[in-house]
Amino acid sequence: MLKLNVMKRFYNVIPLIQDKSILNIILYTLENNHIRSDSFESAITTNNISPRTLILLDKDFDDIFTKNVLKTVKDQHLHPCIILAINKNYRYFLSEPLNPLISGILYKPFEIEELFQILTIDNHAEPN
Q1: What distance in Å separates the CA atoms of residue 7 and residue 87, rounded to the nearest whole number?
Q2: The domain containing residue 20 runs over which residues?
Q3: Which pTM was predicted?
Q4: Cα separation of 39 and 26, whole Å?
Q5: Band of pLDDT at residue 116, cut at 50, 70 and 90
Q6: Assuming Cys at both sites, which of 2, 60, 69, 95 could form a disulfide with 18, CB separation 3.0 to 4.6 Å?
Q7: Residue 7 has pLDDT above 50, yes or no
Q8: DSSP category for residue 3
Q9: Which domain CATH number covers 69?
Q10: Percent of the chain surpassing pLDDT 90
C-alpha cells in the first residue's frame, strides 16, 4: 500500500485519466490517504466542485471531451484548480496559449508523489 504524508489543502480531487490502470492507482492512493475523489459527473450533480477542488485532466482524451469539461466549468461559474496532464510529446500543444481555466501542466508519465506535491500547495495562501 502506498501511503504518503499529505497535508490536505484540496477538498477533493477529480482525476479524469484515460488509462484505467493509471486511474485506478490514483484513486487507490487518494483513498488510502483519505482524500476524497469524485467522478466529474457526480461532482457536477452534487455541486461538489469548488476552489478547493483539483481536476486532473488528461490530454489523451479527445478535444471534444476536454472542451466539454472546460465549458461545463465555465458555464457553471466553477473555480477549481485544473491541471492538464500531457505527454512530453505534446510540447507542440504548448505553442498556443492555454485555456485560462487551466492552472498548470503535469508531464506524463508522472510519479504519484508529483501529484501529491500539487495537492500540498496552499492555493489560498496570502501573497507576500
Answers
A1: 27
A2: 12-106
A3: 0.80
A4: 13
A5: confident
A6: 60
A7: no
A8: -
A9: 3.40.50.2300
A10: 41
- Given pLDDT bands bounded at 50, 70 and 90, which one contains residue 6? very low
Q: Looking at the domain assignment, is residue 1 inside a domain?
A: no
**CB < 8 Å & 24+ apart, contacts of 102-110:** 102/57, 102/70, 106/56, 108/58, 110/85
pLDDT at 13 over 50: yes
Long-range contacts of 82-87 (CB under 8 A, 24+ apart): 82/54, 82/55, 82/57, 83/54, 83/55, 83/56, 83/57, 83/118, 84/57, 84/59, 85/17, 85/56, 85/57, 85/58, 85/59, 85/110, 86/59, 87/59, 87/60
Per the structure, how many domains does the chain have? Answer: 1
d(CA 62, CA 87): 14
DSSP β-bridge partners for residue 106: 85
* Residue 99: strand, helix, or coil: coil
CA–CA separation, 107 vs 93, rounded Å? 12
Is residue 119 in some structural domain?
Answer: no
